[in-house]
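Need fresh eyes. Consider my entry:
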Amino acid sequence: MTQNKLNHLAKWFAIPIGFTIPISTAADNILLYLTLTFFLLGGNYRHKLRTIISNPIAVAALLLVCALLLGGLYGDGEWRDVQHYWRKYAPLFSIVFLIPLFQDKTSREYALTGFMLAMALTLFLSCIIATGWFADRGWFQGAVDNAFVFKLHITQNIFMAFFSYALALKAKYAVQPRWRRAYAAAALLAAYNVLFMVQGRTGYVVLAVLLTYFCFRLFRWKGMALAGLAGIAVASAGYFVSTTLHERVDLVIQETAAWHPGHGATSSSGLRMDYWSNSLRIIRDHPILGVGTGGFEKAYAEKIKGTSMEPSNNPHNQFLLITAQLGIVGLGLLLYLFFQHWRTAAWLPTLFEQDMARGVLLTIVSGSLINSLLLDHAEGMFFAWMSGVLFAGLSAARQRK
């Protein structure tokens, strides 16, 4: 088999990953393994290396991955803990070898369409679950008051918030009015699904951030005011009309108000407050290089010794986790990756790709404030795969020039 055919196979194994990300972790892993295998067998390493080192996103991702690998060589963490975090962060490396594969526009379009179809299927099934037609049949994971389908409610709501944004972009750039109306209606349905059908509070935050950015892109600073008013109106209506949203918001307020440092919280919000406060103490003691990639769990256990607080290997904040593991050096590399992501998005070939790339970044950054998204397989794979697909367009544009 020729090198061209092997690389072609690698690309065609990478394309359907977009469809499997919201649906199946096992399928993700299989397709990613096959993609990497055929990428390596495909040779042409000099051209691939040139493509990688000329792409700022690939370089920034590679720097962060190398830091995470080196971080496993120091600190007091157990070897099993080091391996655990290496496996969790492994999808980040896929940015590097996906970028050379998606140089042609057609493959990028197929890939993004696959993700959109998977989310459309998820939205359709979620709506069916919410009706109660299949209650007690055991066909789906979710329930009438929490209609998640393939992934847990937190993950589904994050992806659905981004899907709503992507549909809004489709409506924005649609040429024919009928398609513009159809995409806009679907975007509103996806947003409704986030707010009223599924109990993922991270999705609320992501949706609010993406709505604000979308309005800003449409109307600049007037759009910010519009987004604020729309957000207040929707939140107010939802709070008083939707029992689910009302209860979730009240629960967060009550749990946060009841939290006391060092008392060992048991509520979801209280546990997060414990995680954050203890992580800050770890960072204070190891500010420069952190406790190592695998050292967080042991360092956290030391901080709660003699208390009733629960142990943890995840502070549910990606910025705190990276800083605790790799210090300000690691935080700087993570922020550098995000900075390059935002800055370089302006160089992508189309306005749709530019807005999609920045939407991906806003999804991960806002979600990472209350979850360690790069540590979660689906969310980490979403960021890496989307970055590889979208920013391959940057390399292709440069080659054309």
Remarks:
- The radius of gyration is 22 Å.
